[in-house]
Amino acid sequence: MTDVVLNGVGKVYPGDHRAVDDVHLHIRDGELFVLLGPSGCGKSTILRMIAGLEEVTSGELWLNGGVANGLSPRERNVAMVFQEGALYPHLTVGGNMMFPLEVAGGDRAESRERVAELSRALGIHSMIDRRPGTLSGGQRQRAAIGRALIREPSLFLMDEPLSSLDAGLRTELRLEITGLVRSTGTTTVYVTHDQVEAMTMADRIAVLRDGVLEDVGTPEQIYQDPATVFVAAFLSSPPINLLQATAWAVQDRGVVLDFGSARLTVPWDDARSSALISHHGAPVLVGIRPDALVPVTGGAEERTITGRVRVLEFHGQDWLAYAEAGIPTVDAGSVGTRPRARPARPASGGLAGRLREMIGRPAGGQEPPREEHAGHHRRSDLVFRAGARRPERGQEVRLEVDLERMMIFGMDGRRITAVRR
Ligand SMILES: Nc1ncnc2c1ncn2[C@@H]1O[C@H](COP(=O)(O)OP(=O)(O)OP(=O)(O)O)[C@@H](O)[C@H]1O
Q1: 191 and 292 in one domain?
Q2: Would you name any one GO CC term (predicted)?
Q3: Residue 361 lies in a domain
């Protein structure tokens, strides 16, 4: 039984750079758990703290029911694979996989049998006598995974193991890794910035931003029911439409979301309407995924937005259309930004300190956005999947909004109703 608990874990690097801030996570026994987020959000730092390669600055890290903050990497029985799996160049694939077993002093015949079995499962049995230098990138990663798994670690950690491979190989190997770790039942923590990799492989995903945990859940939960604007936008390709509206509670109708040139109504029998009452007269953020906007002829006024098609893009299985609807869209990256991602202590004197201060502040001497900030507005297009009813460029379209799938957030970027987990 191997579970991992992060209880308020934080990491501050020298120079007072806070890379991870008060993270609470429970990774369950046998889970394939993915840490997902953009570059620099602290994913690798968390993985390295679990491995014991990086000291935990604050909070507790629990492994198998015991506090592990002070344990050495060796005492943790974890195996790790990096972006470029490290192999001994002078040893063959078989030799590399045998090595950890030899160090542990196991029975030689038994070890050989284990290497043969695992190399078959990884599809590298036919190259067992070759050296790493003669293998392709994908084959080398397979060998590195084999070497990591051969000793049956209680915890398997992978840091972007597929990012140096081409798209075809990535798809192939991600299926194999998923199959392998599921069949062995090894608790696995997998770091990636690739949302497709995360969605297709994970039992559960933790989404990080600037060292802070934004959301945790199954792929379906965090896609369909994201906790924040950031998570909704990060997992949306094509990008989610993020619009600002003012909420008005109207007797006999429901809560009207006023976008200026369009209005949508959340009826009173919709559970979200009661949460919206407290936002009466105030701005909210509305997220609509491109496939929740459907071109219609007719359609009820309180469910539709009208726009003019500006651009059409062919994407193979369907077309994406961009329509100007006269509604300013909001940049998801600027919503709910937290000042705590900056250095923990203000930069002191000296050139480096002054540079750090300058870089951390927007041009023009303005103050950085506060947590309550609405985000940057830009007049932009609504993106929708055109499907079979593909409009012409320049055509006016009525877009029916799937109100059930529309997401409503406060100006702090959090959903106005509690997410289900
Ligand atoms: N040894 C270090 N000393 C100082 N700062 C560090 C160190 N390692 C990482 N950082 C900083 O901590 C933050 C988090 O880094 P980390 O590598 O954990 O992010 P990441 O999400 O894994 O990013 P990437 O996907 O680019 O590897 C970054 O701002 C990074 O610059």
Answers
A1: no
A2: ATP-binding cassette (ABC) transporter complex, substrate-binding subunit-containing
A3: no
45 CB within 6 A, ligand 1 = yes
Say which CATH number the domain at 312 has. 2.40.50.140
Task: Please tell me if the CB atom of residue 49 comes closer than 6 angstroms to any atom of ligand 1.
Answer: no
Does the beta carbon of 11 lie inside 6 Å of ligand 1? no
CA distance 56 to 332: 31
- Supply the CATH number for residue 93's domain: 3.40.50.300
Q: Which of 12, 17, 39 to mutate to test the pocket of ligand 1 (most atoms within 8 A of CB)?
A: 17
- Residue 300 φ/ψ, nearest 5 degrees: -65, 140
- Helical (H) or strand (E) element with 51: helix 43-51
Within a domain: 356: no
* CA 25 to centroid of ligand 1, rounded, Å: 19
For the beta carbon of residue 226, count every other beta carbon within 10 angstroms.
25
DSSP conformational letter for 195? H
Whether the upstream peptide bond of residue 267 has omega within 30° of 0, thus cis, is: no
Q: Are residues 154 and 275 in the same domain?
A: no
Grouped pLDDT means (10 residues each) for the chain, 421 residues: 93 95 97 96 97 97 95 91 85 94 87 92 91 90 90 92 86 88 92 95 97 97 96 92 96 94 95 94 96 90 94 89 92 75 41 35 32 44 86 94 96 94 88
Which of the 8 DSSP states describes residue 367? P
| ipTM of the complex model | 0.97
